[in-house]
C-alpha cells in the first residue's frame, strides 16, 4: 500500500468517526456517557479506543520509544510512561517536552504556587488524524502549538506524589474522555535547565479565568448565560466526585474560559510541589473566602468542602465580584467564617438560587447538597430558560433579567468594587490552630442567645432560694455565651449588654 493511499484511508476513517460522534452527541453534557464506535485499528484490526487510537498498538509504540527520552527523574519518567501506556486516546497522553522545544515565552500572571506563562511548543501534540506513522515508525506531530505553562515554585526537590494526585485526570480509564470538555487538558511536563524548576504544559486558554470573564462581560451576562456556566461547571465537578476525586482548591480563579466554555483546572494541585500530602496537619493551602469552615478548622478536604466552594462560585456569579472582598483575609476572617460569617446574597438573586447558595454554605457538611443535586437543579433551570419552558423558574429568572437590565440602564458600567488591601485570592499557606466549632448564622445565633439570656436572667433575679437548679442552668448558659462571644473580637457592644443585664 502506498503512503498516499494509507493516509487517505486514515482520513476517511477519521471523518466517519467524527460524524458518528456528532450524530450521537446531544449537548456537551452527554459526551462521554454514550458508547461511540471509533472503528477498527488499521494495524491489528481490533476496535479503536479513541479517534484513530488503538491502546494496544500505541502502547507498544510508546514502549519502543522509551529509551529516546528521559526527564532525568526516574519517578517522573515512570509517571509519564504510565500515562502513555494506558492512554485510550491522544488527549490522555502526557509528553516529556524538552525545554528547547518551547519558545516565545510571555508571563500571563501568577497563581498560588507558580508563574503562568504563554509559550509555543514547536513540535506540538501527536497529530489527531495521522498519529503513529507505521511506515516511518514514528509519531507524527501537529506542529507549532500555543500552550500555557505553569512553572512550579520549589520544584527542584519535587515530590512525586504531587503528580500522582493528578494521575486520574490523565486517562488510566474513561475519566479523561468524560472530562474532555470539562477540564483543562494537561499536555506534558518540562524543566527549565537554568532554574531546575519543573513546569506543567497545558492547553492554552484564550479568555482567562472566570473572575476576569465576569469583569469583562458584566453587561451581557444574562441569567441564561450564568446558569449555563454554573450547570457546566457542576457537570465537571460531578464527573470528578463520581470518580471519588476531590478538587481541593475550587474557586473562580481555577475556572478557565475557553471558547466560551468553563473548564475546571488545577484539580489536586492544592500545595507546593515540594510538600508531601498531609505532611503537616496544621498546614493547609487555599483561598480563605472559598474554604469551608470545617476545612479551616481541621485541614481535611472532602466532597462537601468542594460543594461549599462551589456555593461561593454561584455567589460570585450573582454578585459580579469576589466574596468577602471587603475583609482582610486573615485569622479573624477564618474565625468569623467558622462562626457563621457569609457574604450577603444580592437582593436581585432569584429565590431558587438563594436557597441553593444557602444550602451549599451550611456550616454542617451533611446539610449541603450533593453535586448531582446541584447539577440537576442548575441544568433544569438552564433548560427552562434556553428552551422557553414556561415554568415558575422560567418566569423567576426572566424577572431577574429585567431587574438586571433596569440596573444596567441606570449604570452602563460595572460598579467599581474595591478589595480590601489585605484580601488575597491566590492559594497560600494558612495556619489556624485554634478556631471555634463551625456554626450557622453568626449574628442570628448571638441575637437569639442574648434574647434568651435576657429572658432567663429576669427569672434569675426573681427566683427564691429553692431555685438552685435553675440558677445553675443560667450560670452555665451565661458562661457558654460569654465564651462564644469572646471569639468574635468585634463585640464590645454585646459585652456591654451582658454587663448591664447582670449588674
TrEMBL record:
SUPFAM superfamilies in the cross-refs = Protein kinase-like (PK-like) (SSF56112)
Q: Name one GO molecular function term.
A: protein serine/threonine kinase activity
Q: Give the signal sequence positions.
A: none
Q: Taking every annotated instance into account, which residue ranges of this chain make up the domain Protein kinase?
A: 102-382
Question: What is this protein called in UniProt?
Answer: Protein kinase domain-containing protein
Amino acid at each position: 500500500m502506498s503512503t498516499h493511499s494509507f493516509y487517505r484511508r486514515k482520513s476517511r476513517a477519521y471523518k466517519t468517526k467524527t460524524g458518528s460522534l456528532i450524530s450521537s452527541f446531544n449537548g456537551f453534557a452527554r459526551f462521554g456517557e454514550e458508547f461511540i464506535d471509533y472503528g477498527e485499528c488499521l494495524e491489528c484490526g481490533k476496535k479503536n479506543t479513541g479517534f484513530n487510537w488503538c491502546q494496544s498498538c500505541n502502547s507498544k509504540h510508546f514502549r519502543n520509544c522509551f529509551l529516546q527520552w528521559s526527564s532525568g527523574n526516574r519517578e517522573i519518567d515512570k509517571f509519564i510512561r504510565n500515562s502513555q501506556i494506558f492512554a485510550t486516546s491522544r488527549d490522555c497522553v502526557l509528553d516529556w517536552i524538552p525545554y528547547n522545544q518551547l519558545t516565545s515565552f510571555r508571563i500571563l500572571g501568577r497563581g498560588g504556587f507558580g508563574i503562568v506563562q504563554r509559550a509555543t511548543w514547536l513540535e506540538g501534540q501527536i497529530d489527531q488524524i495521522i498519529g503513529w506513522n507505521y511506515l516511518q515508525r514514528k509519531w507524527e506531530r501537529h506542529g507549532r502549538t500555543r500552550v500555557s505553562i505553569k512553572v512550579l515554585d520549589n520544584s527542584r526537590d519535587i515530590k512525586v506524589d504531587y503528580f500522582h494526585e493528578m494521575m486520574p485526570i490523565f486517562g488510566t480509564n474513561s475519566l479523561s474522555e468524560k472530562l474532555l470538555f470539562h477540564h483543562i487538558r494537561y499536555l506534558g511536563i518540562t524543566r527549565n535547565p537554568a532554574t531546575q524548576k519543573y513546569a506543567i504544559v497545558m492547553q492554552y486558554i484564550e479568555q482567562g479565568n472566570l473572575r476576569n470573564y465576569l469583569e469583562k462581560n458584566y453587561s451581557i451576562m444574562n441569567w441564561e448565560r450564568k446558569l449555563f456556566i454554573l450547570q457546566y461547571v457542576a457537570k465537571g465537578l460531578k464527573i470528578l466526585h463520581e470518580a471519588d476525586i476531590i478538587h481541593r482548591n475550587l474557586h473562580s480563579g481555577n475556572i478557565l474560559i475557553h471558547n466560551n466554555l468553563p473548564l475546571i483546572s488545577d484539580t489536586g494541585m492544592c500545595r507546593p510541589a515540594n510538600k508531601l500530602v498531609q505532611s503537616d496537619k496544621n498546614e493547609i493551602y487555599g483561598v480563605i473566602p472559598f474554604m469551608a469552615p470545617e476545612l479551616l478548622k481541621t485541614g481535611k478536604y472532602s466532597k462537601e468542602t468542594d460543594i461549599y466552594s462551589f456555593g461561593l462560585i454561584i455567589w460570585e456569579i450573582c454578585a459580579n465580584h469576589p466574596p468577602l472582598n471587603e475583609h482582610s483575609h486573615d485569622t479573624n476572617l477564618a474565625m468569623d467564617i467558622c462562626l457563621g460569617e457569609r457574604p450577603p446574597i444580592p437582593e436581585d438573586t432569584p429565590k431558587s438560587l438563594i436557597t441553593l447558595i444557602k444550602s451549599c454554605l451550611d456550616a454542617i457538611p451533611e446539610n449541603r447538597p450533593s453535586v448531582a443535586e446541584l447539577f440537576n437543579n442548575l441544568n433544569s433551570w438552564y433548560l427552562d430558560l434556553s428552551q422557553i419552558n414556561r415554568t415558575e423558574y422560567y418566569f423567576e429568572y426572566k424577572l431577574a433579567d429585567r431587574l438586571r437590565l433596569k440596573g444596567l440602564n441606570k449604570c452602563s458600567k460595572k460598579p467599581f468594587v474595591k478589595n480590601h488591601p489585605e484580601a488575597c485570592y491566590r492559594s497560600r499557606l494558612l495556619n489556624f490552630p485554634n478556631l471555634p466549632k463551625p456554626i450557622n448564622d453568626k449574628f442570628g445565633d448571638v441575637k437569639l442567645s442574648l434574647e434568651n439570656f435576657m429572658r432567663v436572667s429576669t427569672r434569675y433575679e426573681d427566683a427564691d432560694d429553692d431555685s438552685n437548679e435553675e440558677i445553675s442552668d443560667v450560670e452555665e448558659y451565661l458562661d457558654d455565651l460569654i465564651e462564644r462571644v469572646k471569639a468574635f473580637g468585634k463585640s464590645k457592644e454585646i459585652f456591654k449588654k451582658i454587663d448591664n443585664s447582670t449588674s
